[in-house]
Amino acid sequence: MTARKQQLLKAHRRTKRLFLVAMLLVLAALGLFLNLWLVPVLLVLVWVAHEAWFADHLFYRATDDYRYHFPPDTTHLAVSLEDGLLCLAQPLPEGETLVFELRLRSSWLGRWLDPYVEVGDDRQDFERGVEGVRYLNLSGQQSALAQGALVLRGRYCTLASTGTLWVMANPDYARQPLMVMAPHADDAELAAFGLYGRGDEVSIVTLTQGEIEAENYQRLGLDLAQASRLKGRLRSWDSMAVPLWGGVPTSRCLQLGYYCLQLPSMAQSPEEPFGSRQSAQSDIRSVRRYNPMLLPADGDGAPTWNNLVADLVALLEHFRPQVVVTPHPELDPHSDHVATTRAVMAAVTISQWKPATLLMYANHLHDNDRWPMGPAGAGVALPPAIEPLPADRLWSPLLSVDQQLDKAMALAMQHDLQGPLPVKRQLRRWIQWLLAGRRWPPTGANEFFRKSVRRHELFWVRDLSD
């Protein structure tokens, strides 16, 4: 998928360059026939239009079908839409996670305003100009659906009259011993705060300090290495302290202290240490002081892959989780996220304790940096899957309004999600608010307050016992 994204990115940039050249030629021609003062005015209008309607980073076509495969034994049935009501030809099967596959088609207005589908008291947004197969998340709507009272209405788009309902049954994984793997501080909260906040027996493991991109801390009079060390300490503290807001004590939280964006290099050379790119540190013990237990890498503090895997083996055998929550290696492209799940699987292979289930999440996407689209508090439709993913089951637990507020406050405590937006992004938001009808929550300026505080959390379920 990375190669495909690079091809689409090159095409996107080529199209933008051609568009800009064409606009400059048009403006130059207008300047010959109109007053010259109109040219800068037109340039500003073109920039405003770009920020309002053409600034999204979608590395696929809105007319592409999403392509999902589910396990062969997944229950599914044909359903129809009649006057907005979703009608079943047979009784609704047992299952808490419901996914409705159907075809959407944008109206002309849906090329300028975000098209969305009202799903009872929920809404789920899609790409402007959408025309293809999409997947609505109907989890939590079982009662209305079974009674034939679930209403679906397209806004700035039309819905096909028939589709397929996929029904997936899972246990409540919050009732099983959980271990949440976070590549960086805040990943556990972004993906699974609602889940781990309900958990009976939860441990949270953060793999890296998250110390890079610390230029903002140089305003305190620090050089880059000092700023990076400060940021690493702050985010390491976040990884230990913020879970307490969700009911997980610090005695069940661990910060491993490896260095940001170095996990893939460590995986390539398992015995070689890889220190920080910015903090001038190479001893991971500097941020392990709050850990409740000693781990294998505490012996030499070396940031090596072998030490990381040994740490994870020790944690699996100590906490004995039935379920491990970890990034989706095919869907989430962040290099540290991919390497995290690779390290987890290496540890599971040699550990004496074998968890039964992986719950996989995606905090980043290859193809669409706005997903989940739409406002905070709305439902989470399935993300783009232009190239098919492995056929995993889905689990999508609900978050109450109170849980969503607690999740937003957990994000607000994270140092990396604090602070105002850059001026350019704030201008873009004002323009999109005025012209495109987009809205952002008052809980925080960072985009994750919109994307992650939702009606649903979404996990891909992979059984390890098969």
Automatic annotation (TrEMBL):
Recorded GO MF terms: hydrolase activity, acting on carbon-nitrogen (but not peptide) bonds, in linear amides
TM spans (from-to): 20-49
InterPro entries tied to this protein: GlcNAc_PI_deacetylase-related (IPR003737), LmbE-like_dom_sf (IPR024078)
Lineage top rank: taxon: Bacteria
Sorted UniProt keywords: Membrane, Transmembrane, Transmembrane helix
Name of the protein in question: PIG-L family deacetylase
Organism, scientific name: Pseudomonas protegens
Phylogenetic placement of the source organism: Bacteria, Pseudomonadati, Pseudomonadota, Gammaproteobacteria, Pseudomonadales
